[in-house]
């Protein structure tokens, strides 16, 4: 059975796992409502790119 000759250090172990971190979704501040929302999505009031696209 293969057994490691030496214990892997904390630094080496964490360096190997650096790409596994969580990513934050692209959030933007809506100028009209003042709330954060996902970018490239229609705002809750039905606007997108400062134009009314849903309702009214």
TrEMBL record:
Superkingdom field: Bacteria
Q: Where is the composition biased (Basic residues)?
A: 7-20
In the record, what terms sit under GO molecular function?
structural constituent of ribosome
Which Pfam families does the record match to this protein?
Answer: Ribosomal_L32p
Question: Quick one: a GO cellular component term?
Answer: large ribosomal subunit
Query: Which portions of the sequence form the region Disordered?
Result: 1-26
Query: What are the record keywords, sorted?
Result: Ribonucleoprotein, Ribosomal protein
Q: Which GO terms describe its biological process?
A: translation
Q: Name the family.
A: Belongs to the bacterial ribosomal protein bL32 family.
Q: What is this protein called?
A: Large ribosomal subunit protein bL32
Q: Which organism is it from?
A: Isobaculum melis
Give the organism's phylogenetic lineage. Bacteria, Bacillati, Bacillota, Bacilli, Lactobacillales
């Amino acid at each position: 059975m293969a057994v490691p000759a030496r214990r892997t250090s904390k630094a080496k172990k964490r360096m190997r796992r650096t790409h596994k971190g969580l990513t934050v979704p692209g959030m933007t501040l809506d100028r009209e409502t003042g709330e954060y929302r996902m970018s490239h999505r229609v705002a809750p009031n039905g606007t997108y790119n400062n134009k009314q696209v849903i309702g009214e």
